[in-house]
Amino acid sequence: MAALFIMAVVFSLWNLTGAPSYQDDEGTYTAQAFSVHKGTLAPYTYWYDHPPLGWIQIAALNWIPMLFDLGDGTAIGATRYVIAAFFVSSAILLYMLARRLTVRIPFAALTTVVFILSPLSLVLGRQVYLDNVAVPWVLLAFYLALSSRHALGHHVFAGTCFAIAVLSKETLAIFGPALLLTLINRPRWSNRAFSVVGFLAVGALVLAFYPLAALLRNELLAGPDHVSLQEALTFQFLERSGSGTIFETGSSRAELLTGWLYFDKYLITAGLIAALVCLFRRNSRAITLAVALFALPIVLGQGYLPAMYIIAVIPFLALAVGVGVDIAWSGTEKLWRHHVGLKNPLRGLFVVALGGSLVLMSMPQWFEQDRELLTAETNTDWKNTMMWVQDNVSREDVVLAPYSMWHDLNSSGWDDPWSMIAVEKPDLDAQFDQVHPGSWRDVDYIVVGPTVRANIENLGLTRTGKVLENSVPVKTFGEWSINKMTVPLEELAVRGTP
């Protein structure tokens, strides 16, 4: 465990702020976490898109890297150090969970090594996503549910941990049936009913805090002049545009699956096959169910599918590989018990086959992608753009900026979310019209990056699009630029300019 801990720390921290590129979602959760320090849930009006417990946990820790000036001097860079702590916790809990599933020590260690070195895990696991905060909680819930003591307290705490995972990122609720199967699929257990009731009751009680908070804020049901949990759920399940199907060429879902396979087709393929092998051992059948439940919305669904959805199943794919190898080893043991002369050749063949498989995975793809991640500097243009705005744009000007750099810019002298404005807000927040009656014409600058143009198109940001159309670049750094507004003559009268 000590060796695995050191390995997880090294790989999670090495070049942490150099790659991958900072994303808007990372900036959103970073800004919300820093808002918690000020006693609010978000810098703008909190909308019930996600439960806030995920970034509340980040807020409980992100003052530590800021205190010690870790990272590259940016808030989002410092917050990645907090996520690294969750990544390391997931790696160690995965080893402990494998051992509790009676996986042999070498194969339990293999499980964790695969999780740490997988390019898919390492790329997404270093970013400020709520899924990374939730994963160790769900792994801890499975670990407690498998407690050999059959202790009621362990199972009640498993329900609490699972509820915390769901309140950190609601998509992890899909693991609920697999966790319940883990709890009840235990032999020789006299107080099963007490544990199941305790698990469900306490878990439901913790989950109830979210709608209760909305009720106490008078935001449970839709109504005039306030956001509501009801409206958020309606949007997520009924109104949000879908990602198409994986069988539809060119759909967002198909492209997303292609992207996941690009980063690590070996772990995804081996994990899915190994999940079927897990059916041969009673205590590991919940892994099969967990992977199946997670894959079901991907294969059959048509609704919105976020890019980070895959994060939660990566440890279960790695766990399936470890358990599958352990089951295969047990099978060869049965063979050499009956054919003693084949013992050493079978063991050698098994080790060669396993080692060869790992080399095939690590050398061509894993090595190259991990090396790129640990050496690349993908945020240089982003940093130069942000620094130029801080040094050259007046604090009296109104600026639109992507969320990836919004908090750093807002806290560098603007200190008003309606002067330094996130690019989505002119179109998606009604308060923009109250503060800026001139609408998009009140904007002086817009910071343009790869995500800005995509968001304008995907989210239908017409006002932000107007700003971009009526602006010219004044400084460019690679794919990033700072554009200044040049309002057409016909708009000057509307703006009230003589």
Q: Can I get a quick summary?
A:
64% of the residues lie in helices and 5% in strands. It has 498 residues and is mainly α.
List the keywords.
mainly alpha, 5-stranded mixed beta sheet, about 500 residues
What characteristic shape results from the CA principal axes? globular
Largest sheet: 5 strands, mixed
Measured by DSSP, the beta-strand proportion falls in under 5%
Distance between the termini: 72 Å
| Spatial strand sequence of the major β-sheet | 2-1-3-5-4
The total strand number stands at 5
Helix and strand run:
HHHHHHHHHHHHHHHHHHEHEHHEHHEEH
Q: What is the SS-derived class?
A: mainly alpha
Count of helical regions:
24
What percent of the residues sit in helical stretches (DSSP H or I)?
A: 55-70%
Using only C-alpha atoms, the radius of gyration works out to 25 Å
* Overall pLDDT confidence: 91
Present the secondary structure layout.
Blueprint: H1 2-13, H2 24-37, H3 53-61, H4 63-67, H5 75-100, H6 105-117, H7 119-125, H8 130-145, H9 152-168, H10 176-184, H11 192-207, H12 209-216, H13 229-239, H14 252-277, H15 285-300, H16 314-338, H17 343-375, H18 380-392, E1 399-401, H19 403-414, E2 420-422, H20 425-428, H21 431-435, E3 445-448, H22 450-458, H23 462-469, E4 471-477, E5 480-485, H24 489-495
Parallel strand pairs: 1-2, 1-3
Antiparallel strand pairs: 3-5, 4-5
Helix pairs in contact: 1-5, 1-6, 2-3, 2-19, 3-8, 3-9, 5-6, 5-8, 5-16, 6-16, 8-9, 9-11, 10-15, 14-15, 14-16, 14-17, 15-16, 16-17, 18-19
